[in-house]
Structures are given as structure tokens and as C-alpha cells.
Write a structure and sequence with these properties.
With 178 residues, the protein is mostly helical. The chain has eight helices and two strands. It has a two-stranded antiparallel sheet with strand order 1-2. It starts with a helix and ends with a helix.
Length: 178
């Protein structure tokens, strides 16, 4: 891995951290994290995008306050919404893989990013239901989707469109050189 790759991965992890702090307060805050996740995946590609999100998750697990609400630590990851954070890793990978295979035109990027978002929603929802089941409480999939997914779809769609435009513009400067 080149110094340039390491710098781009580190800067991308920092971007996701900064975007996590930009939020609209709610029961589950609306943040700009998903924007950064998809901008990173679409710009850096599958491997480096996933590495950037892996670094972001590792920094948070180590206790740095990189998650929304300035949270950090493994408690944030093992909490009810931790699956959505962990879902950022495959989401960035899928978005990056789509960018590499389908191209970096806006329609292809939007499609790839939507596929990545779907994986994040699936992992996060399953995790949320499992955490409540472990605690002896019940949370139906329908209830979790109503609270944790449906309200976020319009904002996530807008963030994906912005991330696709940004990734298309930045990718020529960040694509790996053979």
C-alpha cells in the first residue's frame, strides 16, 4: 500500500467522523455519516473504501468520539444501533465495487450506493432486533423498520445523490494507479 493510499484512507475516515457530528437531533439522529460513507466508497473503490470505514469503526471502538453524538467505545457498537455503524463497512465496499465494475457515472454510482444502503439497512435492522431479543424484550422487524429505516429513506436518497456527484468529481484524483 502506498503512502498516498494510506493518506486517502485516513482522510476518508476523518471525513466520516466529521460527518457523524453533523446531525439533526431525533430519537435516532439524522447525520451526514451515510453521505460520507458513500462518497468514500464511490471515490476510493471497494478495497480502500472498506479500509477507511474499517479504520473509522476501529477508532470508535477504541473509544475516540467519532460516532454520532460524540460517542465512542465498544458500547456504542454493541448497542441497539451499532449494527448500522457496522453496516457502513459493507455499504462502502458495495458502493465502491459498483463504482469499479459499473463505472463512475452518476446513475451507476447511485445504483451502487443504493445497494450498499440496502445492506446497511438489513444489517442494522437485524442487529437492532437481536439486541432487543437478547435483552428479553421484543422488537418486531416492522416496528424497527418504521422507527429506524423508513424515516431516513428520503434524507438518505438525497445524501446518495450528493455523494454520487461528489464521487464522480473526486474519483479521477483518487483512483489507484497501477
Amino acid at each position: 500500500m502506498s503512502t498516498r493510499d494510506m493518506a486517502q484512507i485516513s482522510i476518508s475516515a476523518a471525513l466520516v467522523s466529521l460527518c457523524a457530528w453533523l446531525s439533526v437531533p431525533a430519537a435516532i439522529p439524522f447525520t451526514m455519516q451515510t453521505f460520507a460513507v458513500f462518497a468514500v466508497g464511490g471515490t476510493l473503490g471497494a478495497r480502500r473504501g472498506a479500509m477507511a470505514l474499517g479504520l473509522y469503526i476501529l477508532l470508535g471502538a477504541l473509544g475516540l468520539p467519532v460516532f454520532s453524538g460524540f460517542q465512542g467505545g465498544v458500547g456504542a457498537l454493541f448497542g441497539a444501533t451499532g449494527g448500522y455503524i457496522l453496516g457502513f463497512l459493507p455499504a462502502a465496499f458495495i458502493a465502491g465495487l459498483g463504482a469499479e465494475r459499473l463505472g463512475r457515472g452518476v446513475p451507476a454510482l447511485v445504483f451502487s450506493m443504493c445497494a450498499g444502503l440496502l445492506s446497511c439497512y438489513v444489517l442494522g435492522t437485524a442487529w437492532y432486533v437481536a439486541v432487543y431479543a437478547r435483552a428479553g424484550e421484543t422488537a418486531s422487524v416492522t416496528a424497527v423498520l418504521s422507527a429506524c429505516v423508513l424515516p431516513f429513506i428520503p434524507a438518505d436518497a438525497a445524501k446518495i445523490c450528493l455523494a454520487a456527484v461528489l464521487a464522480k468529481r473526486l474519483a479521477p484524483y483518487c483512483v489507484q494507479r497501477s
